[in-house]
Amino acid sequence: MHKFKIIGITFFIVLIVLVLTYVLLPQDKSIKHYPLVENAFEAVPDFSSISNVVEKKQAFFEYLAPAVEAQNSYILELRQVVQGYKSLIVAGESLSSLQQDNLNWLYEEYRINLEQSHEQRFAELLRKIDIIPLELVLVQSANESAWGTSRFARDGYNFFGLWCFKKGCGFVPKRRNEGATHEVAKFDDLSSAMYSYMRNINRHDAYKELRLIRHKRRNNQQNISAIALIDGLSKYSERGQEYIEELLQMIKVNKDLIPS
Which keywords does UniProt give here (predicted)? Predict the structure, then answer.
């Protein structure tokens, strides 16, 4: 009887290990580029037609919030995939060809320095692949798009003032310095626009400080909040600290309107 009890316990432990392995380690499947939200292809609402300021702000936040939350959920999934690949390599295991393709795509997508060791590459990936707080994205998009009323937001889902550098890739700004060739990017849907914005924050050298602040807070098990990260956006605008102060004021004023 004792023998059967030991066998039963052993079987249970093995089962738990197998389940955890399946859940925690990356499965052999391709990485989706970004998740589509329900309103991804809908025309941007005419926010300028809403005369009540509070109602306009609420409508703006409610329109963008699902896309922000979807991208943050996707980013957390990517982090889990990266951690799984790291665990395999640390354990001396080989990645499948599909897993290696996924990892190579992540290296390229997040501009990882391939001259580093595997350990350094994974460390850089995990610093770059992380969430951006909902309220920070919402107030910044409100600031950059004049609460969704700019032509770039209305006609190209660009709520973030993102640039592109290929002729015909977007809108030619009315005010562009002589000799400049950039355009304001135009997107086909809200989800791809949100993905591009978050990827820009997570990989561009200008926002390295934001990523370092976030990394330290995650390592210290501290909340990754908008207030904590906001100083890392000083290079997003030529106005620098004035821009940061403006965003801080927007967070304060609109705190009760931002979806929880």
Answer: Membrane, Transmembrane, Transmembrane helix
Identify whether 239 is part of a domain. yes
Q: Domain tally for the chain?
A: 1
Q: CA 196 → CA 33, 93, 157, 163, 203, distances in Å?
A: 11, 33, 11, 11, 10
pLDDT tens, per residue, the chain with 260 residues: 554 444 454 444 434 433 344 444 455 778 877 888 988 889 999 999 999 999 999 999 999 999 999 999 999 999 999 999 999 999 999 999 999 999 999 999 999 999 999 999 999 999 999 999 999 999 999 999 999 999 999 999 999 999 888 887 877 776 766 656 678 899 999 999 999 999 999 999 999 999 999 999 999 999 999 999 999 999 999 899 999 999 999 999 999 999 87
Which residues, 6 or more positions from 144, have their beta carbon under 8 angstroms from its beta carbon? 150, 159, 160, 161
Instruction: Give whole-number Cα distances, 101 to 30, 95, 109, in Å.
Output: 8, 9, 12
Rounded to 5 degrees, φ, ψ at 164 are -135, 165
- Domain containing 131 equals 52-254
Say which DSSP state 171 is in.
E
Apex 142 CA angle, 171 and 231, nearest 5:
105
Helix, strand, coil % over all residues of the chain, rounded to 5: 60, 5, 35
